[in-house]
Specification:
2 domains, about 400 residues, Aminopeptidase, Alpha-Beta Plaits, eight-stranded mixed sheet, about 25% strand, four-stranded antiparallel sheet, alpha/beta
């Protein structure tokens, strides 16, 4: 990230800020896991209904909620996406709005995204006479499993939509800054499983067995050569084997080992190639050592890539809110984001909202995760300005 000093944060509208904080804290206290966001969806629909939205549709793509605001002037149709799910972590922060769900917390900022979208619905519903075009809001389930975007798209959430926009609060970007990349924002993220099979037996007679642990050890090492020896040094790739399970006792040769990992890259073609090679390398090694390998692609999302023209419009809108010096650039992030599917289908922009709290750096997807709530009104104002700009019929 850019190393610019933390910018001054201007005084926001008090009523808007209170709405944002209330939504964020209430949602933060009641997180739900992917495709289980039943109460979250109810909360959203319950607060959208009194706003007189032109269309409100729950249950889209599973637990998703869709709402529309139609302006009274001609213009484009823009989709705003906010993800809803939490993570399987136990929060350790000592705050009054700490998660009440043991083992579940909003450790990635989706509560922030929902709060901003809810307040944007309220704001736009009050300005229909001067509002051009139509804004559709997609409150999306299961982003953390990269499984919620496609069902919503398959259900027609992009029908009639010209442009798409989303944001992600980022705990390592100072509050007051916004990052609007003109191209790649985040990497692809593929989850895969390799099942290595051999033949179990007595630990004292390994010659009568086919040791799945030994095969798996060779596979773990060999997969890293796909990065170091089969990928160009200027093409970033990460292959992580984060879970290895096999065997039941010290004196029994394991007949099966299950490896679970992720692949991340910025290039769509390289992503496809490496997924194929992961399966081939594991199968080749296992076969050579008299065993077998099964490859399973569990989930995946392509790289998140902004349309340069749309990103330019969003950057201009953001500059008008926070100032041009606070709109920063960064290297693409190796994390994944299934908003990528929206960007594959329509021109759009995904931007990062600075929300770094004071003190040591805070990392997403950890029990310590927290954000600086002063980012909420900034995110709301930037998103409002960007949406109004994207609605223009030019």
């Amino acid at each position: 990230m850019a190393s610019k000093p933390r910018p001054a944060v201007r005084d926001p509208d008090a009523a808007v800020t209170q709405h944002l904080i209330t939504h964020r804290r209430e949602l933060h206290a009641a997180p739900e896991l992917s495709f289980k966001e039943i109460e979250t969806a109810h909360y959203i629909a319950e607060r959208l209904d009194p706003l007189g939205v032109d269309k409100l549709t729950p249950g889209v793509g599973g637990t998703g909620v869709v709402a529309e605001i139609r302006g009274q002037r001609p213009g484009r149709s823009v989709l705003v996406r906010a993800d809803m799910d939490g993570l399987p972590l136990t929060e350790i922060a000592d705050v009054p709005f700490r998660s009440t769900r043991k083992g579940v917390m909003h450790a990635c900022g989706h509560d922030v995204h929902m709060a901003i979208a809810l307040e944007l619905v309220r704001s736009l519903s009050e300005r229909r006479p001067e509002l051009p075009g139509m804004v559709r809001f997609a409150f999306q389930p299961a982003e953390e499993q990269a499984g919620g975007a496609k069902p919503m798209i398959d259900a027609g959430v992009l029908d009639g939509i010209d442009r798409v926009i989303g944001l992600h609060v980022w705990s390592q970007l100072p509050t007051g800054q916004v990052c609007v990349p003109p191209g790649v924002v985040m990497a692809s993220a593929d989850m895969f499983t390799l099942i290595i099979r051999g033949r179990s037996g007595h630990g004292a007679q390994p010659n009568l067995t086919i040791d799945a642990v030994v095969i798996a050890a060779q596979v773990v090492t060999a997969l890293q050569t796909l990065v170091s020896r089969e990928t160009s040094p200027v093409s970033p790739v990460v292959i992580t084997l984060g879970s290895v399970h096999g065997g039941s006792a010290a004196n029994i040769v394991a007949g099966e080992v299950v490896l679970q990992g992720t692949l991340r890259t910025f290039e769509a073609e390289l992503r496809r190639h490496l997924l194929t090679r992961i399966a081939q390398v594991a199968e080749g090694i296992a076969g050579t050592m008299r065993g077998s390998s099964e490859f399973r692609h569990d989930s995946g999302t392509p790289p998140t890539i902004n349309d340069p023209g749309i990103a330019r419009l969003v950057k201009e809108a953001a500059s008008g809110v926070v100032g041009s010096d606070a709109v920063v650039m960064s290297e693409p992030l190796m994390v994944g984001e299934d908003f990528a599917y929206f960007l594959e289908a329509r021109p759009g922009c995904f931007f990062l909202l600075g929300g770094a709290p004071e003190g040591p750096p805070i990392v997403h997807h950890t029990p310590e995760f927290r954000i600086d709530e002063r980012c909420l009104p900034i995110g709301f104002e930037v998103m409002t300005a960007a949406v109004l700009r994207l609605l223009q019929p030019d």
